[in-house]
Amino acid sequence: MGAREDVECWLTDMDGVLVHENHALPGAAELIQQWQDEGTPYLVLTNNSIFTPRDLAARLRASGLHVPEERIWTSALATADFCRSQMPGGSAFVIGEAGMTTALHEAGFIMTETNPDYVVVGETRNYSFDSITKAVRLILGGARFIVTNPDATGPSADGVLPATGAIAAMISKATNKEPYVVGKPNPMMFRSAMNRIGAHSENTAMIGDRMDTDIMAGIEAGLHTILVMTGISDQAEIDRYPFRPNEILAGVHELVRSEPVESDVVPSEA
Questions:
Q1: What gap in Å lies between CA 183 and CA 145, rounded to an integer?
Q2: For residue 154, is pLDDT > 90?
Q3: CB hemisphere CA count around 22 (13 angstroms)
Q4: How confident is the model at residue 97 (pLDDT cuts 50, 70, 90)?
Q5: How many of the other CB atoms lie within 10 Å of CB of 86?
């Protein structure tokens, strides 16, 4: 990947890059505005599959960031996109929330507990032993096992929570089958995002705060990678890995230009 000057399209992670605990990080609002004003293709990515893009757009608005819902790409959307490309008009049994079920519905899938093509496990706070038992039996019966993201834990105000990867591990152990994981660090998530905005790896950059997901997947997808230090990474974390991002910045405020660039793109009517 070449220099930042070659970048025409942007993918950016959300938590730790644009927002932290529902507060916009410095420069985030200005960077989004810069992309909007210049007609720059971009997507805001999240491995969280609980929420729909509409929900996330509302949450971002509350934190002071105006991101249209069509500019948000979740692991749920990437998973639905993958399932549709593999088996158009298929069926699925879902352990997950509205973000996942809505994405699959919009991709033309039927939700069923009877002989589904896929068992899809997404982020949820409401799984039950009953739903895990169903998932195990359906996978043993031949359903393909798909997981939205590999994160074993997630943050909450009270401390860590078991996340998708932890629930998937329970099902894996019981079925002796490993799932196909669509979200980061699988570069599939970035490829589907690039397809969504008509971008190519040679001219696309990825901004993230995690070496093990954002940067690793960005490198594997052939993108210009930018690590920001506003999330969970510090120098010791960077040094743990045998690869390096193209750039390491204090935060997204370093990407905001002081002078707007004249663009021949006419802004569309809102």
A1: 14
A2: no
A3: 6
A4: very high
A5: 13
Average of per-residue pLDDT values in the chain: 93
Catalytic residue among 6, 13, 37, 117: 13
Q: Is the pLDDT of residue 98 over 70?
A: yes
Helix axes 75-86, 98-106, angle to 10 degrees: 30
Query: For residue 3, what pLDDT is reported?
Result: 77
CA torsion, ordered 205, 32, 208, 227, to nearest 10 deg: 70
Nearest Cα neighbor of 260 from 65, 66, 38 is: 38
| Catalytic residue status for 209 | no
d(CA 28, CA 70): 18
- Cα-Cα end-to-end distance for the chain: 34
Identify whether 13 is a catalytic site residue: yes
Which residue among the candidates 15, 81, 209, 214 is catalytic per the annotation?
15
155 phi-psi bin (left φ>0, alpha ψ -120 to 50, beta other): beta
Residue-wise burial string across 57-77, b where 16 or more C-beta atoms lie within 10 A, e elsewhere: beebeebebebeeebbbbbbb
Q: In the structure encoding, which two tokens stand for residue 97, read together?
A: 């929330």
